[in-house]
Fold Protein-arginine rhamnosyltransferase.
Amino acid sequence: MAGQWDIFCAVVDNYGDIGVTLRLARQLVAEQGVAVRLWVDDLRSLQPLCPATSLTEPQQWLEGVEVRAWTVEATADVVPGEVVIEAFACELPATFIAAMAAQPRPPLWLNLEYLSAEDWVAGCHALPSPQPSGLRKFFFFPGFTEGTGGLLREGDLLACRDALQADVAARTAFLERLGVTLQAGARLISLFAYENTGLGEWLEAMAGGEEAVQLLVPQGRIQAQLQDWLGVAAMQPGQVWQRGCLQVQLLSFMEQGDYDRLLWCCDFNAVRGEDSFVRAQWAARPLLWHIYQQAEDAHWDKLEAFLGLYVEGLSEPAALALLGLWRAWNAGQGMGPAWQVLQPHWLELAEHARQWSARKAAYPDLATALAQFYRNSLSCAA
């Protein structure tokens, strides 16, 4: 499918917005055969995820994607592509919208929404919204159920995951490249989270447990609290600390492919936001989600909506243990008891995570769904 697509990303904070749009742009180029211009208003947030990014070049090509520094001036003389995606309700420049309206065949205008498991999502997915410009904008919702836009998933992702998880030598070599030496018999856990007052209690529970745990922590917002618990003034990637049965190691921030592989290697993944949340589900390992906090506690509705889907098929004791852990983590308290309650259900939760991944993979992925929606729009316009 040839053509030019424009994706606009306004970086709010963290790496979720740019992480999702970068993955989507790469997949559209590689698998759908379209040319993609990714407009980013903060190249500094892109660089950690894609180290080849130049902070000074307003136009550059990264892994097949044309990346443009998003300024009003840069978009002024650009002919819009056949599809224009504004990611997560970012606002397009008025001049660009006018250029869209001036095209002989106006572009398909999509607002790619945040991921949610709430019931209303399927009913709102793909609905049009008439705009003052005379154009129509469609709401496109990623999701976990039929009737939504699906989840980001590259065509070879699960095969690559399975190959790595089945190859002990390859996993060991990858972790050694990250500076990690595996402890025999230790449970391997990754931790990527926002600041969380429940961290200390969880660390104490792991340190005082009966099983050896290796905790791998990519650099991020949780680092300051981790330093406080360890009682150290600073942490450098590669450093290792031992407290009881818990070994803690700080890792450098890594590009997206390596982060995926880290998740595949671990036995349990604590993740945050949207991008790492989805990637942890494709890892087919038990996970713990730290949802982005919203005003008036609106995030709790989203958390409970996902949990309602995710626990389906679990035994009641395992479901209650998982619910207790996720709620404790997001409330920032009660992690010690919740972690202990979870332990007897480890094997069931591991099998459930693999089954969940397989069920979600039965739906079309997000990039494929977007491409099909575009093809359908051409058929309707013909």
